[in-house]
Design goal:
Spore Coat Polysaccharide Biosynthesis Protein SpsA, Chain A, about 300 residues, two-stranded antiparallel sheet, globular, alpha/beta, 2 domains
């Protein structure tokens, strides 16, 4: 019997045309699909799509955050005796054969004696077409580098983005669930760094390239292109960065990164990201809530 793959897609008011493509493509590549919905207004349409593609739909009455939704999907996968969980966003399209390719990468690594954290799929950002850059700690600093055509197709990283990442169920049992208290931002990074601290290694595979959307738009500033999220997302970015900077299992380079991004966030997004008052208010609230140790969803 081959390895059993279970995909988990988290939805929140998805674009139905785009999500239909995501779901149809994914259903062809894995044995089971769980859709965990965070209180979408278009839930009836999602129910119809789930039935059409033999997917299991779990409906949360309100937005409980991506981590809680992923944990529900992982529980579904465990109940189905899955060997691997494939995490997906609602707008990420996997090329045909990607799930099988990620599985083969995982098998090859395991055969080499590697304790696998996650194997993620490389992506191109739908906003600007830029290819994944890999991040690894080097001493006291994080190093970001591009991958070129002649480079190895499998690159070791400290952590991977959740969407398009294949995780062995055995690893999830050892490392634990996604941290629901973070709600949305930095959930995948925290889990990856936690896995790393326990001796698990993560990789990005460039054997397939998926399309993935980062943020709600783009801001060009000082010669750089920057992803722009909503003011509420800025709240979680500030709050969770300060929370993670205090975690001792996280390496010093990442903890330093979480701290040093705070001031640029206030300057760049507060002054140039639009919705200035709302952004500054949300980021200030995130800063204060981190000091008060307030976790979970905003306003809870």
């Amino acid at each position: 019997m081959g390895a059993r793959l279970h995909a988990v897609i988290v939805t929140y008011n998805p674009d139905l045309a785009a999500f239909t493509q995501v779901l149809a493509n994914l259903a062809r590549q894995v044995e089971h699909v769980s859709i965990i919905d965070n209180g979408s207004a278009n839930i009836q349409a999602l129910e119809t799509l789930a039935v059409a593609h033999a997917a299991r739909l779990t409906r949360f009455p309100e937005n409980r955050g991506i981590a809680a939704a992923q944990n529900q999907g992982i529980a579904d996968a465990a109940a189905q005796n899955a060997d691997y969980v494939l995490l997906m966003d609602q707008d990420t399209v996997l090329p045909d054969g990607t799930a099988a390719s990620l599985l083969q990468d995982s098998i090859d690594l395991a055969n080499q004696g590697v304790r696998i954290g996650a194997v993620g799929c490389a992506y191109r950002d739908t906003h600007d077409g830029r290819l994944t850059q890999i991040w690894r700690a080097r001493g006291l600093l994080l190093r970001r580098q591009r991958v070129h055509p002649g480079d190895p197709r499998l690159q070791e990283v400290d952590c991977v983005i959740a969407s398009g990442s294949l995780i062995p169920m055995a690893t999830l049992r050892a490392v634990g669930d996604m941290e629901a208290d973070l709600f949305i931002d930095l959930v995948d990074i925290e889990w990856g760094l936690r896995a790393k601290s326990l001796g698990y290694r993560s990789f990005v595979s460039f054997n397939r390239i998926m399309s993935h959307t980062l943020g709600n738009g783009r801001l060009k500033l000082f010669g750089k292109t920057i992803s722009v999220h909503s003011p509420i997302r800025n709240y979680y970015s500030i709050r969770n960065s300060i929370m993670l900077a205090q975690r001792r299992y996280i390496g010093i380079a990442w903890r330093f990164y979480f701290i040093r991004r705070i001031i640029p966030y206030f300057i760049v997004f507060g002054l140039f990201g639009g919705q200035t008052k709302s952004r500054l208010r949300m980021m200030t609230r995130g800063l204060l809530d981190s000091l008060r140790a307030r976790t979970g969803g905003l306003g809870r």
